[in-house]
Amino acid sequence: MLNKKRGVEIVKTDDSSRISVTIGKTALKPQGHPTSVRFEKQTANVYLVMDTSGSMVGDKLEQAKKGIMDFAKDALRKEYAVGLISFNTTARHLCEPTYDIGLLKNQIRAMNAIGSTNMAEAIRMAHHHLRRPDTIQVIVIATDGMPDSAHDALNEATNAKKDNIDIITIGTDDADQEFLKRLATRAELGKKVTREVFSSAISSASNLLPPPKSITKH
């Protein structure tokens, strides 16, 4: 008997004790023993890492808040849990990855701009909270300038990428486009935009999130 549906193939031979189940490239051959197969979506987490240094004060910060709020809504629709980190002179862990849009909204509204640009600490913090090899892991960084130490920020990004964490970068104003490309996982994931479209560039970064993969367990 052959039954194919949505990439699942079940084959039963004349010997009723021998059934094989093929799902994509995964083949299960219980050989007479009971087997159960369940399909699950791979867990997906993304951290929004937001520059709240003094240069972001005023309308630019409000634009960024709107952009990350829209990003979060779209990421949640794509079944991502969304976490939030802000950074100025130091990094602040505002929210673990969550599906609670209300919690995210409250933390986003409370962000204020002050101090310098300690991006390296923020990337290190996101990396620490994302170190889960069985999940899809993404960091999205939004900034309006260069970090206190470009060298340290690049080192922290390299460490994160070694743990299969994707990094997407969006910059405006004094941000350096080549730096953004080096910081990102791939050059096309690093982008500098004008201040007028900073908000929409942040929100549209959700289009770059890889879709959670289906996995099988038995």
Task: Quickly list its features.
218 residues, alpha/beta, Rossmann fold, six-stranded mixed sheet, 6 helices, 12 strands, 31% helix
Concise synopsis of the structure shown:
The chain is an alpha/beta fold and 218 residues long.
Give helix % range.
25-40%
Portion of residues in beta strands equals 25-35%
The ordered H/E elements are EEEEEEHEEHHEHEHEHE
What count of helical segments does DSSP give? 6
Which architecture of the largest domain does the CATH hierarchy give at level 2? 3-Layer(aba) Sandwich
Please tell me about this protein's structure.
The protein has 218 residues and is α/β, with parallel strands linked by helices. It folds into two domains: 2-35, no CATH class; 44-208, Rossmann fold (3-Layer(aba) Sandwich). The protein is 31% helix and 30% strand. The chain contains six helices and twelve strands. The protein has helices spanning 59-77, 101-109, 119-130, 150-162, 177-183, 198-204, and strands at residues 2-5, 8-12, 19-23, 26-28, 38-41, 44-51, 81-87, 91-98, 136-143, 165-171, 190-192, 214-217. The strands form three sheets. The chain has a six-stranded mixed sheet with strand order 8-7-6-9-10-11, with helices on both faces. A four-stranded antiparallel sheet has the order 1-2-3-4, with no helix packed on it. Strands 5-12 form a two-stranded antiparallel sheet. The longest helix has 19 residues, at 59-77. The two termini are 22 Å apart. Mean pLDDT is 86; it is low at 1-12.
